Amino acid sequence: MKERYFSTFQLILLALFAALIVVAKIALRLPLQLPGHSGLFWMAIITVAAGVVPKRGAVSLVGLTSGIIAAFLGMGDLGALNTFLSYTMVGIGTDLALWLLGSRPENLIVAALAATFGHLGKFLVKWGLGALTGAPVGFVALSLMRAIVGYIVFGALGGLLGALTLAALRRAGFFAYLAEKR
Q1: Pick from 86, 98, 3, 4: which is nearest to 49 by CA?
Q2: Is 53 helix (H, G, I), strand (E, B) or coil?
Q3: Among 80, 71, 76, 46, which residue's Cα sits nearest to residue 154?
Q4: For a Cys staple, 87 with which of 1, 41, 67, 150, CB 3.0–4.6 Å?
Q5: 3-class secondary structure, 114
Q6: Which residues lie closer than 8 Å to 147 by C-beta, 6 or more apart?
């Protein structure tokens, strides 16, 4: 019998991380009024997911699953397609960055860079769909730099938070526990 790429246990963990992203988006709202500020929570969860299931494509699967859940729940301010693509792009961008960096997200620098790259993917989806639908690009360009800086800063902070969480999980023996469950 052919061995599957993801075990059932890993798929359940990834689905739980996807649900946690949606719950965090609903429950953890900061009154900052800055573009990209939710990336602090998103990217921390994505980074932890990448460390708990360290396989290529795992974070993309988390992004895809959370995008389906969020679109189904009617989340997002620009419609279901934007929500689905934004969530999915966060996972794909982070997976791509981790692959290009060739490292694991426990490293603080790698985590910050990968999370920034993934969070900028979400920004590009929002900007691209805005341009495609005829949003006034001149108006969007005025706040574009502020938005990019927000996405970079909060994405990097979320990646750092995720890497610190992974380090705490390792010290607590979580990964030894996971090794027993496989």
Answers
A1: 98
A2: coil
A3: 46
A4: 67
A5: helix
A6: 35, 36, 123
pLDDT digits 0-9 by tens, 108-154: 899 999 998 998 888 888 878 777 777 665 555 556 777 788 888 88
How many of the other CB atoms lie within 10 Å of CB of 170?
A: 13
User: Rounded to an integer, what distance in angstroms lies between the CA atom of residue 168 and that of residue 147?
Assistant: 31
Is residue 2 classed exposed, middle or buried when 0-12, 13-18 and 19+ CB atoms within 10 A define those classes? exposed
Tell the residue number behind the tokens 């900052």, with chain if given: 32
Q: What does each of the 182 residues of the chain score in pLDDT, given as a tens digit?
A: 677 888 888 899 999 999 999 998 888 777 767 777 788 888 899 999 999 998 999 999 999 999 999 999 888 777 788 889 988 999 999 999 999 998 788 888 999 999 989 988 888 888 787 777 776 655 555 567 777 888 888 889 899 999 999 989 888 888 777 777 66
Q: Write out the two tokens for 125.
A: 């989806």
Tokens of 141: 């360009």
Task: Specify the 3-state DSSP secondary structure of 144.
Answer: helix
Indicate the burial class of 180 (C-beta count within 10 angstroms; 0-12, 13-18, 19 or more). Answer: exposed
DSSP designation for 135: -
- Given a contact cutoff of 8 angstroms between Cβ atoms, the answer to whether 151 and 127 are in contact is no
Q: What is the C-alpha separation between 147 and 133, in angstroms, rounded?
A: 19
pTM of structure: 0.85
**What backbone phi and psi angles, to 5 degrees, belong to 40?**
-60, -45
